Amino acid sequence: MKNATRSLKQAFAVALCFGTATMPAWGDQSADIEGLITQLAPIAGQQESSAMPEAAEIRGTTVYLLRSVSVDLEVFFALNSSDLSVQARRDLGALGHALASNRLRRYTYLIAGHTDSRGDARYNQQLSERRADAVRRYLINNFPIDPARLLSVGWGESRLKTPASPTAAINRRVEVTLVVPVGGYPPYDPEANAAAAPAQQPPEAAAPPAPTAPAEPAAPTAQPDTQAPGTMNTDKDGNITITW
């Protein structure tokens, strides 16, 4: 591709490619990073009620995926390999910076590998798992990202982007999707860990106890007016609503 200027849609539309490829390096990635943050950050106060989050079992644990907060990425690998190419490492830089940003660092995401329908289904499944793991390892090894925030899974050819064209390149992709935790995410507190805990001082000699007034009954604990972001609520008809 000779044109080095690509729209976000072009940059993230194609995914895991079996063959090697050469593409122009991204110079200033700030626009790409901001675009990823916008696509992967839930909007505060927004309510999601159009569809039930998808339940998926990842290594024996059931998680819920919010498909409305998801993005497909192009990640280039050598043929039949899970080794990240030089271009793949360069292109994953934008995703790593986005996931490590203040706006996304409180959230958990699933890194999913997909293939097209070429070849043996079992081999495609294993290859997609290895490639998703390779992307996850690269991100947590090269960016300040808590490993617990990134899950990985391989779907093989079971979740084609375009079922009508099962061998199309767009089916070979890495998908990044927001995970909705049971009970929601803790409220954001940017100053929670800003100050280090004070150092312990040596114990002093005990002073005689001072006279105290009779204890008053403790006031009832106030209940929070708002739920934690990402909390799932079910109405009487079984409809699911998620409030961010």
UniProtKB/TrEMBL annotation:
Q: Please list where the region (Disordered) is annotated.
A: 191-244
Q: Does this entry carry the keyword NAD?
A: no
Q: Which Gene3D superfamilies match?
A: OmpA-like domain (3.30.1330.60)
The record, for Pfam families, names:
OmpA
Instruction: Please list the residue ranges that the record marks as compositionally biased, kind Pro residues.
Output: 205-214
Biased-composition ranges, Low complexity, are: 191-204, 215-229
The UniProt record lists the keyword Electron transport = no
Q: What is the name of the protein in this document?
A: Outer membrane porin F
Organism equals Pelagimonas varians
